[in-house]
């Protein structure tokens, strides 16, 4: 009897120990292992997508090593406070994978992202058609101090801090894209905005300042309007653009409706015909 109850007590204690052990293991799994696996698979997915897209973009240019491009990219922000990544952090990346000039076919945009990319398709070259631009368009990334991971969530928003990895990349890469612009370039500005040439935009604050008359002959502003044009070519902000433009670059301004642009681009009989 007595021995039975002693054994029963031991069994109960053992049972309790097993339950506690299992709980501890479950807590360890939930708190440490699962986030680590999720995180590393997220980093791996981001990296794999980066390299895969890069390789698709460079099928004809075998001299680009996409693993090297990835290394130069992550070196800019990995292990850093995500509010302490200056534009210059991407210098090495841009020297390894610079945008290529497409004279007379370079298309800039501000407040007109969607229509610009529809108009550009197969005819013009936007920042997002360059190798790095196409790989990183629509993506979010950052690092963390003391970590070698790439994070794709929990990163600072565009205006949350000045030196965030995403904003710094687009500013640095856009400066490079504008610096190589040559021949007759075009910018699509938003005619439905009260300030089509918005001073804090990347186009106004970075790209226009990089245009050089050694390479660029003219800049055509296409003011894209819907049914309700708010601005026209006499707009005050456009006068500022004209003033800021290097005097050796010819300035032209035209108003075109969004539907005219899209219909023109869909004219399969005459692909890439000028639409302004
Ligand atoms: N908050 C969030 N996102 C922003 C913000 C902001 N305040 N400002 C810019 N962005 C991001 C968004 O992703 C947005 O779609 O930049 C994109 C473009 O912003 P726009 O104001 O429409 O244009 P702009 O700042 O002039 O940038 C476009 O930069 O990359 C070059 O060649 C490209 O000419 C183009 C120009």
Keywords:
276 residues; 4-stranded parallel β-sheet; 9 helices
Written account of the structure:
Helix 1 (2-57) packs across helix 2 (66-75) and helix 6 (165-179) runs parallel beside helix 7. The chain contains 9 helices and 4 strands. The protein is α/β, with parallel strands linked by helices and 276 residues long. The chain has one domain: ADP Ribosyl Cyclase, Chain A, domain 1. Helix 7 links the parallel strand 2 and strand 3.
End-to-end span in angstroms? 101 Å
Estimate the helix proportion, in percent. Answer: 40-55%
* Domain count: 1
The fraction of residues in strands falls at 5-15%
Strand order of the main beta sheet, please?
1-2-3-4
Task: Summarize it.
The chain is an alpha/beta fold and 276 residues long. The chain has nine helices and four strands.
Give the helices and strands, then pairings.
Blueprint (H helix, E strand, L loop, with lengths): L1 H56 L8 H10 L15 H6 L10 E4 L2 H8 L10 H6 L28 H15 L3 E8 L11 H9 L5 E10 L10 H9 L5 E8 H8 L11
Parallel strand pairs: 1-2, 2-3, 3-4
Bound molecules: adenosine-5-diphosphoribose.
């Amino acid at each position: 009897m007595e021995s039975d109850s002693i054994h029963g007590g031991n069994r109960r204690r053992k049972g309790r120990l097993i339950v506690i052990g299992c709980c501890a293991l479950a807590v360890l799994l939930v708190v440490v292992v699962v986030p680590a696996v999720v995180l590393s698979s997220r980093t791996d997915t981001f990296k794999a997508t980066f390299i895969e897209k890069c390789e698709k973009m460079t099928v004809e240019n075998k001299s680009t090593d996409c693993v090297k491009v990835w290394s130069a990219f992550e070196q800019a922000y990995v292990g850093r406070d995500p509010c302490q990544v200056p534009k210059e952090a991407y210098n090495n990346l841009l020297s390894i994978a610079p945008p290529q000039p497409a004279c007379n076919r370079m298309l800039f945009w501000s407040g007109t992202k969607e229509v610009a990319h529809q108009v550009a398709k197969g005819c013009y070259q936007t920042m997002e058609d360059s190798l790095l631009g196409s790989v990183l368009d629509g993506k979010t990334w950052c690092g963390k101090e003391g970590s070698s991971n790439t994070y794709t969530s929990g990163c600072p928003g565009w205006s949350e801090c000045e030196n965030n990895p995403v904003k710094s990349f687009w500013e640095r890469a856009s400066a490079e894209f504008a610096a190589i612009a040559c021949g007759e370039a075009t910018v699509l500005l938003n005619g439905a905005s009260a300030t089509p040439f918005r001073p804090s935009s990347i186009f106004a604050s970075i790209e226009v300042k990089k245009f050089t008359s050694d390479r660029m002959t003219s800049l055509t502003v296409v003011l894209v309007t819907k049914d309700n044009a708010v601005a026209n070519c006499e707009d005050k902000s456009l006068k500022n653009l004209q003033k800021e433009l290097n005097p050796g670059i010819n300035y032209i301004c035209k108003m075109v409706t969004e539907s005219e642009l899209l219909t023109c681009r869909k004219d399969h009989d005459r692909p890439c015909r000028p639409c302004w």
